[in-house]
Design a protein that fits this description.
With 318 residues, this protein is α/β, with parallel strands linked by helices. The chain is built from twelve helices and 14 strands. A six-stranded parallel beta sheet has the order 3-2-1-4-5-7, sandwiched between helices. Strands 6-8-12 form a three-stranded parallel beta sheet. A three-stranded mixed beta sheet has the order 9-11-13. The chain is globular and about 55 Å long.
């Protein structure tokens, strides 16, 4: 990779991936875009930025050509709960946006990273240690777009030789950018509430187990996969990756190690609970570990300690 384009750069993953990519490859070699141009003024002004709708293939091709882009990290998408509220828009953004990126990549000879999700699995997939290759029959529009995206990336690789790669992310925990519209958002919000109010009302049931990953590991997964030797990749798209597995009650217990008075209560959101119930309890990520040496660094205790420390210092103005 020499010149990189990142779409959806102002989102939860993009805002932190952009910083990491620029630290690794140089500010001028990482071009960031987003459909909006407000928010995160520091990131927008830190290097080359374009306001661009990823569905606009002409505008995208112009940016790729102007900056001699060879690798595209395509993150622009609607998340699970937001997608379920507007399925037509979710299909348009998630699929037509990806199609536009893949067409530009085909014409301009770019490699493409596209994240998939545990949402690509449905209720008929094995619930525990869900394998890399198994039945995928999601019941949400978000999941449908993710499976479609996986297949579309495979097709462009087989048909046109586009170097497409991706991972299936579990829930992502971050201290920098708050999530918006995801089913696993509670796992981030709970830390903010613990620091500010010492209590949290969760929208999922207390015994809902899901896989999670801390943002530094999520970023490491994306970069390491794109840097991996293609000759070692038997799979290319949608590698299962995971770092930890817990339910809200588990997370609350770990928070009490550092904030003993913390309390959790529940007000279940039926839409997000239904989405969570349709997803795996846990993922098996053997293929990623073997094919490109995936190895996460953070477990639940390390994440909890780090998140609470960062958020406490931020609240005290340090």
């Amino acid at each position: 990779m020499k010149n990189i384009l990142l779409t959806g750069a102002l989102g939860q993953i993009g805002s932190e991936l952009a910083v990491s990519l620029r630290e690794r490859y140089g500010i001028e070699n990482v071009i960031i875009t987003d459909i909006k141009a407000d928010g995160n003024k520091e990131l927008i002004e830190s290097g080359p930025f374009y306001q661009c709708d990823c569905r606009d293939s002409k505008a995208l091709a112009d940016i790729v050509g102007r900056h001699k882009i060879d690798t595209i990290y395509h993150l622009a998408a609607l998340l699970s709960a937001v997608a379920e509220a507007n399925p037509q828009k979710a299909w348009d953004v998630n699929i037509n946006g990806l199609y536009s990126v893949l067409e530009v990549a085909r014409e301009k000879h770019c490699a493409v990273f596209t994240p998939s999700s545990i949402g690509a699995f449905g209720p008929t997939a094995p619930k525990d240690y869900t394998p890399q290759d198994t039945i995928q029959r999601p019941t949400s529009i978000y999941g449908v777009t993710k499976v479609t995206g996986e297949l579309l990336c495979d097709y462009y690789n087989h048909k046109y030789g586009v170097d497409t790669r991706g991972v299936r992310y579990p829930g992502i925990i971050s201290s920098v950018t708050s999530p918006s519209g995801g089913t696993t958002d509670y796992a981030v919000h709970i830390y903010y509430a613990a620091v500010k109010q010492k209590r949290y009302t969760c929208f999922l049931k207390g015994d809902t187990y899901l896989d999670m990953i801390y943002m530094p590991d999520a970023i490491k997964a994306a970069i390491n996969l794109m840097e991996a030797d293609p000759n070692k990749l038997r799979h290319r798209n949608a590698f299962n990756v995971s770092a930890m597995n817990f339910c809200p009650e588990d997370q609350a217990a770990y928070i009490r190690r550092y904030i003993p008075e913390f309390e959790i209560s529940y007000n279940i959101d039926p839409v997000r609970q239904a989405l969570a119930n349709s997803w795996p309890n846990s993922l098996e990520d053997y293929a990623a570990r073997v094919e490109w040496e995936w190895n996460p660094e953070y477990d639940l205790d390390a994440v909890t300690k780090d998140m609470l420390k960062i958020l406490q210092e931020r609240s005290e103005g340090k």
